[in-house]
Amino acid sequence: MSSKEHVQRVWTAGSYADTIGPSFLSMAAHLVDAAAVDTDDRVVDVACGTGNVAITAARRGAQVTGLDITPEMLADARENAAIAGVDDIEWREGDATALPFEDDAFDVTLSCVGHVFATPPEAAASELLRVTRPGGRIAFSSWTPRSVVPAMAKTLQAYLPPDPDAPPPPFLWGDEEVVRERLADGVTDLSFETGVVEQLSLSPSHSWELVRSQSGLFIVALEDVDEDDYPALSEDMSAAIEEYFDESRNAISMEYRITTATVD
């Protein structure tokens, strides 16, 4: 299986569009606000998924292109755009490490927990810079290293076979020092802000069941876990999630960081 086929399989397993993605709608709006998207902007949403950011930006009057590597995600995005009454977004299939656009094509380049999964990360960073005009803006969101998603990934990793070729974890895009290194001298006015979205749940074990059964990232990774280890993994995962569970709201807090910068 090629790398592209593997990525497409990850993002089509489960039902991200119906059960996971809606929790991130407020983060999409926060990202568009942080990037100060305006009616005169040409905007690209890299790794757009089901279109949350692209549609939000289009409703602000921007000229928007949404790009994703997975045709099924783009089909969901088109349907969401039609429901939202937004019919002028251009949807493109493509890879975040080799964007199918000319240099300096956009005023604003956005990605909401999307390009962070592209490997190698240096290529994804280079492409964000390349397609944004000088004086244009880059803005993206990532889970912070201390948030629940990395905690779950670390828990799962203990049950997986060692992989010396594994790429850097995606949540490093939520580490300020790593972001500074990856964007390097290509930007000015680099700034960060933190937010939280909530995943509603009755308990940590309910949250893990949702992720285990509906998130393609975990569904595919779990194929490499010994079936005899499932009970122990479930117990450890519920314990990891417990730290982020607020029983007064029946919600899991998921911390993210938004990076904004101006391209030199």
Protein traits:
alpha/beta, eight-stranded mixed β-sheet, 264 residues, Rossmann fold, 11 helices
What do you see in this structure?
By secondary structure, this protein is an alpha/beta fold. It has a single domain (3-145, 163-197, 253-263), classed as Vaccinia Virus protein VP39 (Rossmann fold, 3-Layer(aba) Sandwich). It is 40% helix and 24% strand. It has eleven helices and eight strands. Strands 1, 2, 3, 4, 5, 6, 7 and 8 form an eight-stranded mixed beta sheet that branches. Strand 4, helix 6 (121-130) and strand 5 form a beta-alpha-beta unit. The longest helix is centred in the N-terminal third of the chain and has 14 residues, at 71-84. The N and C termini lie far apart (39 Å).
Q: What is the CATH H-level superfamily?
A: Vaccinia Virus protein VP39
Largest sheet: 8 strands, mixed
Quick one: overall form? Answer: globular
Q: How many strands in all?
A: 8
How many separate structural domains? 1
